[in-house]
Write a structure and sequence with these properties.
The complex is a heterodimer of chains A (342) and B (784). Helix content of chain A is 41%, strand content 20%. A seven-stranded mixed β-sheet of chain A has the order 1-5-6-10-9-8-7, sandwiched between helices. In chain A, strand 7 and strand 8 form a beta hairpin. Chain A starts with a helix and ends with a helix. In chain B, 41% of the residues are buried. The longest helix of chain B has 19 residues. By secondary structure, chain B is α+β, with helices and mostly antiparallel strands. Chain B has a seven-stranded mixed β-sheet with strand order 29-32-33-37-36-35-34. In chain B, strands 13, 15, 16, 23, 24 and 25 form a six-stranded mixed β-sheet that branches. A five-stranded antiparallel β-sheet of chain B has the order 5-4-3-6-11. The chains are: A alpha+beta (342), B alpha+beta (784). The interface between A and B is large, with 87 and 93 residues.
Chain lengths: 342, 784
């Protein structure tokens, strides 16, 4: 068929030359539309013989299909490159995104206290709290420290201008909460008492005047010293780890008898002896003992029917040991560079 | 307390490893704070004579010496500046082991062979001097052991911490008694041998006591013809090991007896005591005495004075002596006071005068009134010379006979968790001096020795049984709590509050409960404050009544260290004088304080953090503009739940912030936890999620600045009625076109019916109602 080849070649060039979607649409209308050369050829078919018409018509249709196919592929190609260009324009370097404010950090002391509480809650204890400003009676008298008792001097108690002289103080230990718990509920008692305490003690790397203690109190029928030792060991394993053990050695506290200091395996040397533990393999953690009959009497409990144990140690000290804090004063500076480490 | 092992061996044959003995002390509650091995590590060190000193060919600062260590000349390189020919020195030959696991070898020093080391005192653990070698006095034989040349005797010194309830263990003999009992070793305190050769003591001196309550027993012995001089080497060495400086035979004997037996005594120069005697009385109120330490002491009638026979004070009984009758080089007649003072009286005097001495520490814990005779005898025995006057002056109030304590074996086992029998209990108590007699089935009558004033009740005896049975020998058990462990709702919600704040970007501060004077005032706080009595430091002398100063100090601390954008919160107690009647304790409450400083801080951030907190506890609070001390007068609001003000939100007054060294805006929240946190748990009840589509309506109203946005929102909420699902302020716009003092508040209303899709008419109706209501209530116009 004369001219068809030329028409198709021209149309093909036209479609291929289109650079934009609009140009492609215009080219498509020009080469495949009603006024296109191809349409003209089709219109000329009537002048041919039936045989020629059939053959030419077939050739024209084939050319049209080829051109339509080309137009479609050109369209797909253009859409793909346009999408690619659009996405490229949206490219984002995720490492250039500035950090958000970020989360806040709970104080290390709170984190430590929560974890200690959880260990004892898991052992069936409740958590008791009491006032930080206390009466002398709850803090000392009821705990078998009468006024003038020499052991009081170890507490460096800060008294307050409130009521009679030396009647009101900032609690130097959380033990008055033991008294409040025993006054508030009948035994059995399985409680811990965490909280802030204060001692008039010049701060140094190992001590701050404000610090946090946690005490435990169990009062039930037939509670023994063996129960105390076993409870300390269970807690030690749970909090410090399975390889850390505890031992008790005799000590003196007015509110317990028999009394003991409890020590745990030095975690630095795993008990082998090092500078931290002065070569003993043990680190002193806190005090404990069997609740003194005078303390039970102060809260009207019959020491023949009920017995109990109590223990106490420093929350800050647990944090110090676990996190390697060389100077305890940093715990009260509230330096955000320290707080954010935990 | 320093306890030499050699001294302990005077009382019991301790021949176990010194470290094991230390463990025994620990296990008995006599805590070993240190063990010192004396004279060990120099076994291989010998005396040598320096024959010649020559310069080193290749080094300026060391020299080449020839020394004789008994076997002819050896070449030794020495770096000490003080080495010189002719000296006798401490020499470590090749193969010697020195303290610190250090073995001497044959070695070259810059090309010159050295056959050993000339040692400094520091290298041998014999002193701190490391500047030069140790040069020996006298004429010891080269090659002989250094220890012999120095008269060194090896010993082990324990540093023990003795608890307040163990007066018996405040002395060498007491420590030995406790340890010997534990180790099942024989124990005895030898009776002192005293030959009385002088006149009757009554002819030489007198004593009188007119306050037997303060001083229940007072005794005196007299020695004449004493010559004051140095103590024997044994006494001097033991005192030194125990940490006391030898002074003279008289003073040393008194100190020795105190360390050994726990009984303080006081020697007087009898010739310097007017009236040749002592009298004991209460001080006159306000009476003044200069004590041995040169300090003028003002006394009260509760203090016990030791006076000469004419009534002039010479010392404070049981605490400290005076200078006038001190032992001197010329003393020839000694009166030895040995007394028992009331422990509580000594404790009060010592505390009041802030004067603690070796004597007062022992008397206040309780000495042994029956140990006085032996102590005085031991003093005389140690003093040795002179003529001891016959007899003892002794004024005493007969103590009440000690009453036996009933000790029930089942009680012991009940408290300890042991299964001991009567005989075992008895076998644990008798070796430490308790007399145990059967008193019925499972009961024994126990009489404590006079040196155990701390043991007065059954539980004291239980502790002694436990100590000597061994704490580690008690079987460990764990009691089973009948409860399910839990936190209270308040405690759980308080933890959640902290977590929510941390999630909102705020970190947690912890502050002391005390502030400096003026800290509250700097924050504008005008309420009454509670002060500490005799605080350690002014910085911590006033109980805090608000959290504002604490948090501003924390922010200021960070600002001073260039820590930017510090957002801090604290959950803590504050203490206030109640408005009504004063109770036994101040008003104490737990508050939340939040301070948001730096970029993105300020009141807007505070409001947003507050919204997060209120949402976390499902609290619908009202925010009303208000003022509060220390807070910004026009950027602060109070937070109300119902009619209760539970706190504030806004910003710190810029002048207040500046007073704490903080520049820029500081957002602030304070909330009373008792108002914020629920105390009983309630579960949120589910509402069905709507299944029909919702419609949004945006309405922007132009209103006066004086009209709070919250008020407009309230009006819209009421006007929109039940179809309103959500209402949100999404834009605030100010422009002069809107008029001065006016702004546009744009709200998005989400409308929703539970059971149908809303029609245009529904939406239009709500829209109209809202526009009319805002116009009528606030004069607000819809913004075109």
């Amino acid at each position: 068929m004369e001219g068809l080849e030329k028409v198709e070649t021209g149309a093909r060039e036209r479609l291929e030359a289109a650079a934009t979607l609009d140009e492609l649409k215009a080219a498509e209308a020009d080469v495949l539309g009603k006024r296109s050369a191809l349409a003209g050829l089709n219109a000329g078919l009537g002048r041919l013989s039936p045989d020629e018409r059939k053959e030419s018509g077939r050739l024209i249709n084939e050319a049209r299909r080829r051109l339509q196919e080309l137009a479609r592929s050109r369209l797909a190609e253009m859409e793909a490159s346009e999408r690619a260009a659009r996405l490229e324009a949206e490219r984002l370097d995720l490492t250039e995104v500035p950090p958000a404010r970020g989360r806040g950090h709970l104080n290390l002391v709170t984190q430590t206290r929560d974890e200690l509480e959880d260990v004892f809650v898991g052992m069936g204890y409740t958590v008791a709290e009491g006032p930080e400003v206390e009466t002398d009676w709850h803090s000392f008298e009821a705990l078998n420290f009468p006024k003038g008792h020499p052991a009081r001097s170890g507490f460096d108690t800060l008294y307050l201008e409130w009521g009679e002289p030396e009647s009101t103080l900032i609690r130097p230990h959380t033990s008055p909460v033991q008294i409040r718990v025993m006054q508030a509920q009948p035994p059995p008692i399985y409680s811990i008492m965490p909280g802030k305490v204060y001692r008039k003690d010049t701060p140094d790397a190992r001590h701050t005047a404000t610090f946090n203690q946690i005490e435990g109190l169990v009062v039930d029928r037939r509670i023994t010293f063996g129960d105390l030792a076993g409870t300390i060991e269970t807690f030690t394993n749970a909090y410090f780890g399975a390889g850390i053990h505890s031992r008790l050695r005799p000590a003196y506290f007015p509110f317990t008898e028999p009394s003991a200091e409890f020590e745990i395996t030095c975690a630095i040397c795993s008990g082998g002896g090092c500078r931290t533990c002065s070569g003993t393999g043990w680190i002193e953690l806190g005090g404990c003992g069997m609740v003194h009959p005078n303390v039970l009497a102060a809260v009207n409990l019959d020491a023949e029917e009920w017995s109990g144990f109590a223990f106490g140690f420093g929350i800050d000290r647990c944090a110090q040991m676990r996190h390697g804090i060389s100077d305890m004063r940093v715990l009260l500076d509230n330096d955000i560079r320290f707080i954010s480490q935990f | 307390m320093k306890v030499p092992l050699s001294w302990l061996r005077d009382f019991a044959p301790f021949d176990l490893d010194p470290r094991d003995l230390g463990e025994t002390f620990d296990d008995l509650g006599m805590v070993v704070e240190g063990i010192e091995f004396i004279g060990q590590g120099v076994e291989h060190v010998v005396v040598a004579r320096v024959l010649d000193v020559a310069p080193h060919p290749n080094a300026d600062r060391v020299r080449v010496t020839q020394v004789d260590a008994g076997d002819g000349a050896l070449q030794v390189v020495c770096g000490a500046p003080n080495v010189a020919a002719g000296q006798l020195v401490a020499f470590a030959p090749v193969g010697a082991e020195l303290p610190g696991d250090f073995t001497i070898g044959r070695r070259q020093v810059r090309g010159v062979w050295s056959e050993g080391m000339i040692c400094s005192a520091r290298e041998l653990g014999l002193g701190e001097d490391a500047a030069g070698i140790m040069v020996l006095d006298g004429d010891p034989e080269p090659g002989s052991p250094l220890a012999a040349a120095l008269g060194l005797e090896t010993d082990v010194v324990y540093d023990l911490a003795i608890e307040g309830n163990r007066p018996d263990a405040n002395c060498i003999a007491g420590v030995a008694r406790d340890a010997a009992a534990r180790l099942r070793l024989p124990f005895a305190i030898p009776e002192p041998a005293v030959a009385e050769s002088g006149a009757k003591v009554e002819e030489l001196a007198t004593i009188a006591v007119d306050c037997p309550d303060l001083c229940p027993r007072f005794t005196a012995r007299v020695v004449t013809g004493v010559s004051v001089g140095p103590s024997s080497p044994l006494v001097a060495r033991r005192l030194t090991l125990a940490g006391m400086r030898p002074i003279s035979n008289v003073v040393d004997a008194s100190n020795y007896v105190m360390l050994e037996l726990g009984q303080p005594t006081h020697p007087y120069d009898l010739d310097k005591l007017p009236g040749r005697g002592l009298s004991v009385r209460r001080a006159e109120p306000g009476e003044v005495l200069v004590t041995l330490d040169g300090v003028e002491r003002r006394l009260t009638a509760d203090d016990c004075l030791i006076c000469d026979a004419e009534g002039t004070p010479v010392g404070i009984g049981g605490v400290m002596g005076g200078a006038s009758s001190e032992i001197s080089d010329t003393t020839s007649t000694v009166l030895l006071e040995a007394a028992y003072f009331d422990p509580m009286a000594i404790a009060w005097t010592s505390k009041r005068l802030n004067l603690r001495t070796e004597a007062s520490a022992r008397f206040e814990r309780g000495c042994d009134p029956e140990g006085i005779d032996r102590a005085a005898g031991r003093f005389l025995e140690l003093l040795g010379g002179g003529e001891v006057a016959a007899g003892m002056l002794d004024v005493r109030t007969e103590p009440a006979a000690p009453s036996p304590i009933r000790l029930r074996t089942h009680r012991v086992n009940h408290i300890l968790g042991t299964e001991l029998g009567d005989a075992e209990v008895r076998a644990l108590l008798e070796p430490i001096g308790f007399r145990v007699e059967p008193a019925g089935d499972g009961v024994q009558a126990v009489t404590p020795p006079s040196y155990r004033p701390d043991a007065g009740t059954e539980i004291d005896l239980v502790e002694e049984v436990a100590r000597h049975h061994g704490y580690s020998n008690v079987r460990r058990t764990v009691p089973v709590s009948p409860y399910v462990g839990h936190l209270t709702t308040y405690q759980r919600e308080r933890r959640r509050l902290r977590d929510v704040l941390a999630g909102a970007g705020v970190s947690e501060a912890v502050s002391p409960p005390l502030l400096a004077p003026g800290d509250h005032e700097r924050t504008g706080h005008a309420g009454e404050l509670i002060e500490a009595v005799d605080p350690l430091a002014r910085e911590e002398s006033v109980l805090r009544a608000t959290l504002l100063p604490s948090l501003l100090k924390a922010v200021g601390f960070n600002a001073a260290r260039r820590n930017a954008d510090v957002w801090l919160f604290e959950v803590g107690k504050v203490f206030r004088v109640p408005t009504g009647r004063r109770g036994p304790l101040p008003d104490e409450r737990e508050l939340l304080g939040v301070a948001l400083a730096g970029e993105g801080g300020g009141a807007p951030a505070a409001k947003q953090v507050l919204d997060v907190v209120l949402d976390a506890f499902r609290r619908e609070a009202r925010i009303e503009a208000a003022t509060a001390p220390g807070l910004h007068p026009t950027r602060t609001a109070r937070v109300l739940l119902g009619f209760d003000v539970i706190g504030h939100v806004g910003e710190v007054d810029p002048e207040v912030a500046a007073a704490f060294g903080i520049e820029g805006r500081v957002g602030w929240i304070d909330l009373d936890l008792s108002g914020l946190l629920p105390t009983s748990h309630s579960y949120a009840q589910a509402r069905p999620v709507p299944r029909h589509p919702s419609s949004d309506v945006d309405l922007a109203f132009v209103v006066d600045d004086a009209v709070p946005a919250a008020a407009v929102a309230g009006t819209v909420r009421r006007a929109a009625g039940p179809l309103l699902e959500d209402l949100r302020l999404f834009d605030v716009y100010r422009h002069e076109r809107l008029g001065a003092g006016r702004r546009s508040l744009a709200y998005r209303l989400r409308l929703q019916a539970p059971d149908r899709t809303l029609t245009d008419a529904d939406v239009a109706e709500v829209r109209t109602a809202c526009i009319e209501a805002v116009a009528a209530t606030h004069g607000g116009e819809l913004r075109a």
